[in-house]
Every structure is written in structure tokens, then in C-alpha cells.
Amino acid sequence: MTDAALIAKVLDGDVQAFAGLVERYYDDCTRYARRLLGNRQDAEDALQETFLSAYRGLGRYQERDQFRAWLFRILVNQCRSTMRQRVRQGKWLVRDAGSIDRATVEPETERVAVRDALQTSLDDLEPMLREAILLKYGEGLEYSEMAAMTGSSVSALKMRVKRACDALRPRLGEIIRDSGSEGSSTR
Amino acid sequence: MMVAAFAAAATDPRLAGRLDPETAAAVARVVDEARTAGLPTEPLVAKALEGATKHAKGDRIVAAVRHYATALGGSRAALGEGSSESEIVAGASALLAGIPGDTLVQLRAARPRQSLTIPLVVLADLVARKVPAGTASAAVLGASRAGIRDADFLRLRERIEHDIRAGASPDAATLGRARALAGERSTSPPLRATP
Amino acid sequence: MIDRDDHELGERVARAYRESGPGDPEAKLRLLGRLRAEAAPRRRPAILNWLLEPMQVQVRPAAALAVAAIVVGLGVIAAIGLRERSGARHLSPGEGRPIAASQGEAEESAGSPPVIRFVVVAPQASRVSLVGDFNGWDPEAAPMHRLVSGGGTGDTWAIAVPVPRGRHVYAFVVDGKEWKADPHAPLAPEDGFGVRNSVIVVGSAGST
After folding, report:
1. ipTM of the complex
2. Strands C156-162 and C178-180
3. Do A93 and C77 meet the contact criterion of CB atoms below 8 Å apart?
4. Which spans in A38-153 are helix H?
């Protein structure tokens, strides 16, 4: 059943149909939230708020938008809100043993090393740069889509992606080299 | 001189490394007394190191550590023997800020089984922001008796801070927010401004 | 502007991203539970859609700088003035999840203290250190590093350090001489040395 059909069902009173949309998009949203926020608990909270927001606002959704894009816009902004709250506190937890634990039970391949390094390097980027590179290369969005989603200009987004790449390149390069000699390292 | 040097040799190496021998020895004595009394000693060592980093004079460091040790004792007496280290430390800070020991006793009565660390942190913060001790005490006690959670205590603090930054007097900001909190919980008694 | 190197890097990022793993089934169940408690959404009359046309967040150009300031950091140390006030305007007090609760919710490797990341904005600084009772107040122990900035000059400094559970005091030392509390943390009362520190409580969620 298409997203539009599920939504129509929900608005007609079959609220259970929303679970179908959750099933369809929860994992994708999780991926973005975890990578951006670097922390499972914050990601889960952001995801909850996002889906609740989408549910409450379903009456506003118009079919000319893709539902996934609409949902992602809510997610991106929810995550921004989390970052603002976090930074306002001045500090946040960076080591999320949950994600690292999962990585270490898998075979120690170069891919695992990259993933740990990716998260560590992402954590060192300012939130706007992190967001930009995840939307561009993680989600594979066009700059025009990113602009519509975030409200930032295409040129600002391009600059952020470039800066993010410049920052990540040496860090990831290091890890790839290390993983060749010593195996992956958990940071 | 020899005696002082000997005493210094028995001192915590962290103190010996950062303080002159006389100061290190004097601080070590305070720390030993505290240890004998069963009080937390790490905060005392940390206090001395803080003074060293700030290039404070030896006698000032010793005085600060002594005051702190006294406050730790007072805090434990007021909060009760079973109190956690962070409660005792937070309580000591509140006492040093001018909060009466009686407020700590009343806080414990209001929250016998829950940690008082956060309410005490909030109390000390308010006084540090120039909220009169009486007003701050009444606000935190009132909130504790109303059963608010730690998360809400911290939010209350943030709201008060926000209002102070926005130009309200510390006293008025605290009274205002505390009243609002009491209003949300109709069972708690209304807060009165303390003279 | 985007060159080939960036594309290769992008591919690597994309690969790692795709392997991020599925969502947590229990978290999904919790979400579904919450959804059940919600009122059913209704179709909005078409005219309202047109009139109200909501954007989840619209960053007006003039406000963009203020938003960037919020996202970048709020422990602003140097002549804050306008910047911090605009940051404060955009925040609703009480929205943030208190740090004491959130730290406890995070998992940590058994036996080792939670790692806390401190972030501060210090636009004019050439070096910033984190000092506290958890590192012997040693300015050499935790030199902070600048984050890469989208705005060019990198005003934000950060460091992640292990902080044992309990109440701690800390401050930032700017350029080896200026001692500054964290403007957005609870204050510790005057410390006996003429300067104020900030307080952090590392504890469990739903504090006992």
C-alpha cells in the first residue's frame, strides 16, 4: 500500500494504519538520528518526537510532498532542536557504549573501523556541518532538496559539505591506515 | 624545618607536587582529621589543588580547605549519617553560601529517601546569583515538599536564571517562579516572601 | 566546488552510513505505545492548509545567525552582549533535558566513568582548558580543541573527558589566565579564592 493510501486510511479513522508508516521509515530515521546525535538515547527521543509530530500533523500533510521527505524534514528539525538543547547545557555525552558494543561483536573489518572512525570524526564537527554531510552523502539528497528541508541556502549547504569533507578526510585517512596495521580500534 | 619536611613526605603526592611543603603539610593535617571523622577527603584535596591552580597564597589555601572541612562536617550532621558523598558535598557548598543548617535539616525531612544533591545544587546556585538565602530556601523547600523531581528542579533553576538575565531582581524572579510551581500543584502551601 | 576527492570521501561516508544498523525494536514498541495514547489526527479543511501552510522550521535569513549561534554553542565567554541575548531569546527555559538525568541514561562500559563532552564558545581565544575537581584543576590535563566551523574562524571549543558519578565543580581557563564559569550551568558559590565555578552532577536517571 502506498504512503498516500496509508495516510488516507489513518485520516479516515483507521489509526492502526500509521503503524505501517512507522514500520516503513523507522530504521531510516534511526540511522540519521543516531549518526547526527551520536547517542542512542537522544536518537530514540528525537525519533519518538518526530513520529508523534508527524502523527499529530498528518492532517496538514499534502500529497504533493513525498511523505518520506516530509517526515525527514520533521526529523531534521527535531534533531536540530535536540542539538540546541544539548548545546545549551554546554555538554553532552559522547561515548555511546551501545553503538560501540555492537561494532565490536562484528568481525573487525575495515568497514567497522571506518564506522567507528566516522562517528568519532562526526562528533568533532559542528552540528551544521554534520547535518549537511549526512544529508548529502548519507541520505543522498540533492542540494535543492536539502535546502527545502533545512531552510538553509544551497550555497551555504555546499560550503558546509565541503568543510565537513575537509575535516573528515585526514581523520578517516588515519583510521584506514591504522586499520591496515592493527585492526580496528574502538574509541 | 626537619619536622615540617618529614610531615610533607607523608603527604598526598598530589599536594606535595603542587604546593609548598608547609602548605602541603597543613592541608594534609586537615585531610587526615577529616578522614578520621569519616568525611569525604577527595573534595578537600581538590580544593587545595584548585587554590594552587589559582596561585592563591598558602595560608589562603589552608583557610579555604579548613572552612570546607568544617562545612562538610556541618553538612553531614544536618543531612544525616547515611547521606551520600555528593549530598554532603553539595550541602557543604550550600552552607558556605550562607544557607542555614536548619534548611538542610528541613530538606532531609521533606525528602527522606530521595537524593538531595540536585536541590542543594540549585539552592547554592540561587544564592550565588544573589537570591536572598531566605527566599532561596523557601523556594527549594517548598518545591521539595511538593515532590518535584530532579529534572524539574533544574528547570526551575533555569527559569529563574532566565528571568534574572531578563532583568528581574533575583528575589522577585525566585518568588515568581516558585509561586508558579506551587500554583501548578494545588496541594502545596503558598510560598510567602521571607522578611 | 565539490571535487572528486569529496566524492570518494562521500562514498565512504555513504557506505558506513548504510551499515548503521536497524532501529531498536523495543524503542519502536515504546513509540507505538505512545501513539496509541494520542488523539486521532483529523483532516484539516483545505482552506486552512492554504492559509496556515506550516514549515516545520523556517529559518528567516535575519535569524539565521542567531540560530547558528545557538547550534554552535552557548557557553559564550568573551564579550557576549548581543549574541548571548539573542540565544536566550530563542530558547524556552525548561525545554532542555537536565544533564543529570540524561547522563545516567547513557550506557557506559562497565566500571568506567561516563564520558562527558564540554563545549564552549570563546571567539577570541587562542587556547582554552577545562579544569575541575575531576582533573586536579590542572590546565594542562584537558586542553580543549577547536571544532571545525562552517562559519570560518571556529569559535567553538570542545573536549570529552571521563567524569565520575557525583557532584563536581569545573571552569574554563582561557589563554592561560582568564578563569570563567560556564554561563549555562549551575553556579558553585564563591570558592574561597575569589572566583566562581560551575557545577555538574553526573548521576542516574530518575535520580534517587
Report:
1. 0.86
2. unpaired
3. no
4. 40-56, 67-89, 97-105, 110-123, 127-133, 143-150
Q: Tell me how close the Cα of C23 comes to any Cα of chain B, in angstroms.
A: 27
CA distance to partner chain C, nearest, from residue B56 (Å): 7
Q: Which of A120, A106, A79, A126 is nearest to C115 (CA)?
A: A120
Which of A48, A93, A96 is the mutation pick for testing C, counting most C CBs within 10 A? A93
Chain C contact present for A185, CB below 8 A: no
Tens digit of pLDDT at every position of chain C (208 positions): 556 778 888 888 888 888 777 888 888 888 888 888 888 888 766 555 444 443 333 333 333 333 333 322 333 332 222 222 222 222 223 322 223 222 222 334 456 777 788 888 887 888 999 999 999 999 988 999 887 665 555 678 888 888 888 899 999 999 988 898 887 789 998 778 888 899 999 865 333 2
**Integer angstrom CA distances of residue A99 from A43, A76, C124:** 12, 21, 36
Which of C9, C23, C68 is nearest residue A172 as measured by Cβ atoms? Answer: C9
A147 and chain C in contact, CB less than 8 A: no
Q: What is the pLDDT of residues B52-95, one digit of tens each?
A: 999 999 999 999 999 999 999 999 999 998 899 999 999 999 99
For residue B47, give how far its alpha carbon lies from the nearest alpha carbon of chain C (Å).
Answer: 8
Rg from Cα positions in chain B:
19
Q: Is the model's pTM score more than 0.80?
A: no
Is the Cβ pair A91, C99 closer than 8 Å?
Answer: yes
List, as ranges, residues 62-81 from A with C-beta within 8 Å of C: 62, 73-74, 77, 80
